[in-house]
Structure formats: structure tokens, C-alpha cells
Amino acid sequence: MKRRFSNKVPFILLTIIHLCMFLYNFKKHTATTIFTSLFTNIGMAYIFEYVVFTWLKAYHYFPIIFKNRDFDNAFGALLSQAIFVPITATFLTLNKKSWFWKMIFTLYFSIIERMFLHWKLHQNRWWNTTLTTSLIFLYFFISDFWLRNITKKIVQVISYVLISPLFIMHYLYALIFFKRITFGYKKYSWEEAFKLVPLYGLVQTLFYMFISYKRTPLVFLTSIFSIFIIDFCLIKLKLMKVKRYLYLLILHMYTLALNSYSYYAIQNTREWKEAPKEENL
């Protein structure tokens, strides 16, 4: 019990710190700009996590918040890739911080990783802190580049593809946690779910993208029909098991609404049309 409590504390403190950084952005920036920058950064971080963490098993987290070890490990990764690192990148980008501040926050994350390793909250397998340092520093510049070019069509489309699966994934993870739906191919474990759910989210996103960008009755009906056909096939192939189909119906209604806002937010992020000048040190 004592270790379980002590392991939670650093994760909770970091969550509070980064949520404060997130709220600070609303002093100077519109909700649409914050939404577009943050969720695009989360989407990029999730792609990295899907490859390095889910498939290549580069490292392991021990927040000891949940009893299920696979979910507890993934929750630690989610805090890192959905809150800590993306919020910091968004904060630096929106506030036009120079390379000096990017270096400071890169060192900040490197020190956190070393402390987590020392406290046994985090375990590297083949990963190392040098990789963390170099990739986070690069990630901060990618965040800047992305928002500077958000008015370009290709960047807007890719942003949509990065953002939309996040809504689907988090909803499905909640359903899996409460045992209303399962994904898998052998054990129907969390490990299998973390491999399949992002792919499901990405495929469904392509149809939602057609709905958002084409906006014709034929495209809408064809895309919705295709989405339900995919669900039907996954259920028949036993890759997805759902207690009530109502959960999937709610998923698609909820995702359609959020994707409409995503499209609106991306299209209306205009305050960075010109490349921002970096702050002086």
C-alpha cells in the first residue's frame, strides 16, 4: 500500500503542473488554436507511442494506480504522451519560446526520466535517456513548424487524421475498462486491445474525414454505411465483442459531433498565418 501511494505522487504532481501550463494558454490564445495545437501534438505523440511502446516495448511505467498491470503501464504512458509532453510542446509553441526554452524543458524531461528510473517508477528495456532528450527537443520544433503551416491544406488534412482517432480510442478504452466491449484475437487482453483499437480508430477516421470535407448526402450515407459494415465484420470475425450495439451507436454519434468541431477548429486556426517570431532569451 505504501509503495502504491508513493508511486502515484510524482504522476499526480506532474499532472497538476502541466494542467496549470495548459490553462495558462487561455490567457492569450483562442480555444480553437489551443485545441488544434494540443490535439495535433497528442496525435503525433500517440503514433510514436504506438510503435515504440505498444509494439517494440521500449519501456515500462509503474504508477501503480490500477490493479491490472497492462492497463497501469499504459496509463503511465498515456499521462506522458497525452499530458506531460504534448502540453509542454503546446505551451512552448503558443508562447513562441526560443530554442533556449526548448532546451530547458528538454533537460527538464531528461531529469524527470532519470528520477523515475531511480525511484523505479519507470524501466527502460532497450530505450535510453539520450533518445528521450534528442527526440523531445526535435518534437518541440515539429510542434512549431506544424502550427506555422496550419493554413496549408495538406497540414490541415493530416491534423484531422492525427486528432480524430483520439476521440475513438479514449471512448473505447473507457468501454473496455468497464467491460462493455473487448478487442483482441487470442486472449482479449489489454495488450491486444492497445494494438487493435488505434488501427480501428484510424480506419474509421478516414470515413469521418470524407464526411467533414465532402459534405454531400451521398458521401455521408456511404461513409456511415461503411462504418457500420466494418463494425459488423469485426464482430463476426470475433476481433471485437460488444455487450450492446448501442455503445457503438453512441460512439459514432459522439465521434461525428467531435469531428465536426475538429474540422471547424482546424479551419479556423488563423492567428498563426504568419510564422511567429521567437521570443528573446
From TrEMBL:
The keyword Membrane applies. It comes from the Bacteria. The chain crosses the membrane at residues 9-26, 32-53, 74-93, 126-142, 154-173, 193-211, 217-234, 246-266. Keywords: Membrane, Transmembrane, Transmembrane helix. This is Uncharacterized protein.
